[in-house]
Amino acid sequence: MQSILITGTNRGIGLEFVRQYADAGWQIIATCRDPVAATELRALAQVQPHIRIERLDLGSPASIDELVGRLGNDLALDVLLHNAALLGPGGPQILGAWQDSAFLDAYRTNALGPALLTQALLPLVEAGSQKKIIFLGSAAGSIGLLQPPANLYAYRASKAALHLIARNLALDLQARKLIVGLVNPGLVDTRGLLDLAADDPGPPDLQHLVRLVRAGVIPLIRSAPSVTGMRTLIDGWTLERSGQFFNYDGQPLPW
Ligand SMILES: NC(=O)c1ccc[n+]([C@@H]2O[C@H](COP(=O)([O-])OP(=O)(O)OC[C@H]3O[C@@H](n4cnc5c(N)ncnc54)[C@H](OP(=O)(O)O)[C@@H]3O)[C@@H](O)[C@H]2O)c1
Questions:
Q1: Which site among 10, 92, 139, 153 is 20 to 30 Å from 22 CA-CA?
Q2: Is the CB of residue 12 less than 8 Å from the CB of residue 89?
Q3: What is the CB < 6 Å shell around ligand 1?
Q4: HEC string of 76-137?
Q5: CB-CB contact of 246 with 253 (8 Å)
Q6: CA-closest candidate to residue 133, choices 157, 168, 101, 107
Q7: For the chain, what is the largest distance between any 2 Cα atoms, rounded to a whole number of angstroms?
Q8: Ligand 1 centroid vs 114 CA: distance in angstroms?
Q9: Strand ranges (DSSP E) for the chain?
Q10: Mind listing the domains of the chain with CATH numbers?
C-alpha cells in the first residue's frame, strides 16, 4: 500500500486529494489545524479506514515538532504533499496598506512551514518507495507569469519563496534520488461559486469574484478534475523532472 502525508486537508483542494487518494487505496496521513472542526474530513475517515487525521499548524514550528514526534521513526512516506496555504485577506496586501503581519503570516505558513516540515520528514520520505516531495505552488507566485492586477503581495511573494525553496531542494536532494515537484492546481473553485443559482448573489465578501466568474473573466474549474490531473502528474514524476513546475494539466510553467 502506498502512503502519503497531505497538509491542509479539512477543506478545498486538500480534502479532494484525500478523497481521491483514499479511493485509490492509499494510506493517508491527513493533517489539518483543527481536527475537531474538520467535520467533512472526519466523516470521510469513518468510511475510509486508511485515513489517519493529525493536527498540524504550519505557522508553528512547535506544532511541526509535535507532529513529527507523534509519527515516530518507523513510518515510510511515499509522497509528502504540501497543499496547505494561507491566501489571507486582500486588503492588507494592497500597496498603501502593507503591514508586516500579512507578510510574516504568509511566509510562515506558505514557505517556512513547508520547508521545516520537509526537513523534519526527510528520513520518512527516504524510507518510502517513491521518494517524492510535492509542493502546491501558484501561478500567482510565478515572476514569469506576473500580470495585473498587482495585488496579493504577501501571498504571491510567499509562493515565489516556496518555488525557490522547492527548486533548491531538488538540486540538494538529487544525489539522494529524492524527487521534488511543484504544481499549480489551476483556478479552482474552493468557495462553491460554480454552484450558485443564476439569481443567487453569493457570499457578500465575494461579490466581485462572483461577477468576474459569471462574466467568464475568471475561468474557474472544480477541484475534482484539478486533483485528478495533479495525481496523474505526481504518479509520473521522475527524477529527471525534479525541480520543475507544471500546471495541473501537465503544461510546464515558468518560474
Ligand atoms: N484554489 C486556487 O485557485 C489555487 C490556485 C493556485 C494555487 N492554489 C494552492 O493550492 C493549495 C490549496 O488551495 P485551496 O484553494 O484548497 O485553499 P483553501 O480552500 O484556502 O484551503 C487552504 C487549506 O490550508 C489550510 N491552512 C491555512 N493556514 C494553515 C496553517 N497555518 N497550518 C496548516 N494549514 C493551514 C487551511 O486550513 P484552515 O481551514 O484551518 O484555514 C485549509 O485546509 C494552496 O497551496 C494554494 O496556494 C490554489
A1: 139
A2: no
A3: 7-8, 10-14, 32-34, 56-59, 83-87, 109, 136, 138, 184-185, 187-188, 190
A4: CCCEEEECCCCCCCCHHHCCCCCCHHHHHHHHHHHHHHHHHHHHHHHHHHHCCCCCEEEEEC
A5: yes
A6: 168
A7: 57
A8: 13
A9: 3-6, 27-32, 51-55, 79-82, 132-136, 179-184, 245-247
A10: 3-186+223-247 (3.40.50.720), 189-220 (no CATH)
pLDDT digits (tens, 9 = 90+) for 143-199: 999 998 899 999 999 999 999 999 999 999 999 999 999 999 999 999 889 999 988
Cell numbers representing residue 61 in the block = 514550528
Determine contact, residues 242/179, Cβ cutoff 8 Å. Answer: yes
Burial class (CB in 10 A: 0-12, 13-18, 19+), 185: buried
Do the beta carbons of residue 141 and residue 162 sit within 8 Å? yes
Query: What are the φ/ψ torsions at residue 90 (nearest 5 degrees)?
Result: -70, -35
Burial class (CB in 10 A: 0-12, 13-18, 19+), 190: middle
Testing ligand 1's pocket by substitution, the residue of 18, 184, 188, 245 carrying the most ligand atoms inside 8 A of its CB is 188
Backbone φ and ψ for 216, nearest 5 degrees, come out as 80, 10
Q: List 184's β-bridge partners, or say none.
A: 247
pLDDT digits (tens, 9 = 90+) for 58-114: 999 999 999 999 999 999 999 999 999 999 998 999 999 999 999 999 999 999 999
Under 8 Å between Cβ of 29 and 71 = yes
- CA 228 to ligand 1 center in whole angstroms: 17
